Amino acid sequence: MTTLIKRLRENDWQELRAIRLKALHSDPAVFGSNYQKEAIMTEADWKNWLRTNDGAIFMLYENTRPIGMTAIAVDRDDPTNKKAILWGSWLESHARGKGLSEMMYRERIRWAKEHPTIEKIIVSHRASNLRSKHAIQRHGFLLMHKENKVWPDGTSDESIFYELRIQHLKDERPGT
Fold first, then answer.
1. Torsion of CA 103, 106, 107, 109, to 10 degrees
2. Rounded to whole angstroms, how far apart are CA atoms 84 and 164?
């Protein structure tokens, strides 16, 4: 089995739609959105997600079959554009626990290092999502704070936020 990761482009919108809706349907408790909201999105909505220089969505493939996705975007609420947010990570259940999050983190961090303004990456997880917690900490993110949240599935649980500063990583690149 060959596993690879690829950045999606505008013409990949149908693959994005299929895997995102599958993720929202199969694991609704881990997302900040829900199936009903995104199922009614138009082709133009999906293409807009892929048409930006201030974000990237990556698809994981097992051979040629999509098995997961992950994303990063400049934080819309940060006027300095120095902060990026990780979002939308999901893997099919048979692909979990096999170290594939390493590919996901590597690609998103690489994207942030290459972005001209990003200095830090923020990620959060639902307190009960221990797999996310371990992956986040394994990749060097440091705990920032916790917030109580009512999730789209109607339950209350903390959202735990972490940060990874990347400016020093940019300075270590050859030629800088």
1. 150
2. 10
pLDDT in tens, 73-127: 999 999 999 999 999 899 998 998 888 889 999 999 999 999 999 999 999 988 8
Cβ–Cβ contacts within 10 Å for residue 46, how many? 20
pTM score, whole prediction:
0.87
**Residue 56 · residue 49 · CB < 8 Å:** no
Enter the tokens of residue 17: 């739609």
**Which token pair is 56?**
């990237």
By residue count, the chain amounts to: 176
Query: Residue 113 is encoded by which pair of tokens?
Result: 């290092």
Round the CA-based radius of gyration of the chain to a whole number and report it.
Answer: 16
